[in-house]
Design goal:
single chain; 8-stranded antiparallel β-sheet; binds fe (ii) ion; 216 residues; Jelly Rolls; 2 domains; 0% helix; mainly beta
Length: 216
Amino acid sequence: MLNMDFSHRIVIETSQAEWVPSPSGSVFRKPLERAAAESGHASSIVRYEAGASFQSHPHPMGEEIFVMEGVFSDERGDYPAGTYLRNPPGSSHSPFSKEGCLLFVKLNQFHTEDNSRIIINTNDPEGWRPGHGGLRVFPLHSFQTEGTALVWWPKGERFLPHRHYGGEEILVLSGVFQDELGQYPKGTWIRSPHLSAHHPFVTEETLILVKTGHLI
Ligand SMILES: [Fe+2]
Ligand SMILES: [Fe+2]
């Protein structure tokens, strides 16, 4: 078990973490949270080397992926950097990458009734919406209390102090995210528990992937 007590705040600067080999010799992982060795709830940064493939595998409780770099592929298609994917409970696939890729992967964390397969290319400028202040938001998914979005922060933006009902999970995709508790450069993963609070801001242009309401 790794970081499975959701009442704890966890910050991992993933660029500083060690790569761990996976059962495929050309796929490597940086584990963030994990219930068991090769099954159950797991969140990781995953790297496919050029030409890497991973064995066919099921996702009994779904798989959520954000492609951070390169091009990720499976038998259904090719997914370039900026693609958000949801493979629902009961799905399976045989993934690979011709040129290599870097992924954020959350396995087996779907609500049982959340059965939609979603593929969103966030490079589409049409998906962005105005947010609070100068923020821009690209909604990716919502189900019951859970919401997932990209949030773009212009240089110098400061958000309101707020509390997280159901917790908050952030992956910093570019720039440096900040709050009163610290500074989080590109690649940092922050998991904040149910009813935690903070006052975030940035001093440079910053892009984050945010999930809220799922840690209850
Ligand atoms: Fe998968
Ligand atoms: Fe927050």
